[in-house]
Request: fold
Amino acid sequence: MKDIRSRLIKLFKQGYCTPQIARIAKKIKEPATTIHYNIKKLEKEEAIKTYKAVFDYKKIEEGYCIYILVNLIQENYAEPEKIAKEIAKDSRVESVDVVTGDYELIIKLRCKNIDEYYEYAKEAIKKYGFAKTISLTSLKQVKTEFVELN
Amino acid sequence: MKDIRSRLIKLFKQGYCTPQIARIAKKIKEPATTIHYNIKKLEKEEAIKTYKAVFDYKKIEEGYCIYILVNLIQENYAEPEKIAKEIAKDSRVESVDVVTGDYELIIKLRCKNIDEYYEYAKEAIKKYGFAKTISLTSLKQVKTEFVELN
DNA sequence: TATAAAAATTGTATAATATTCAATTATTTA
DNA sequence: TAAATAATTGAATATTATACAATTTTTATA
Reply:
């Protein structure tokens, strides 16, 4: 056995997909070449970042999803973006935003289970200088990445 | 002019993409048929929900991104999932989760600007029975949908 | 508002890619 | 340990994307 599966999941999280021009052409009843031209234009202006897969995360061992609201320690308070970029590198992080209000950052994280989350949290607090965090554990993921999950 | 662009964006938000088998085969140095077989298996077990595009949302007039923490009114408190499913139907909603803690729901929303957001908020409070909301406006989207935005 | 330049649409031809199928190998089950 | 099931693979075929040139539409400018 070659465990192609896990390598596919890794690649599909961020890319290795492409538009279905023929299907779109049929759907919106325009010539495939017109569709092709317009897609290339969107790509050229970098309005499209990538094409990727959306998973049912429970089925790929990433069913534990948490939103983390973060206050940074004083030293890091002035450069939340730099910290956010560090945080973004972790493959379990679905999203990171620098935000207004009572918190500096909001992270959306996908882990296998609560134990893996605990490991992440312990490390992150030290590594990224979190002063305080509030975690909202997802009980039910109704929609992700614009895709309804039912 | 046919305004193919906006129709493409709409389709690409949730689908109309497909894996690049040849590219993956080259990348991980396995036969294309093996890749094909493994992808179909992932699809069959519904581990993969769809293939879609990720946008630079500023470039498609959806640059205003907000996380909304929601408390439901007493009447709706017992069925957050039902409300979440209603919320999920709106195409501006990237994600909705039912969560633990001080709030019942967390919504990630993408709008054109603050005005559009205000319209959404006004309507949502009534329509979905929000008792109280806290909005975290994204100042900088560092990573979304597992894709770093720089 | 006429005209030139640029951008967008389109059909045809071709190149690239996915998919089918049958054979082989590996793994699991009883 | 044999039989059944699942996974890997190469060759043939079907489908799809892409390149290209021609045409139409839109925009810019005098």
About this structure: Chain B touches chain A through 78 residues (CB under 8 Å). Residues 58-144 of chain B form a domain with the Alpha-Beta Plaits fold (CATH 3.30.70.920). The longest helix of chain B spans residues 114-128.
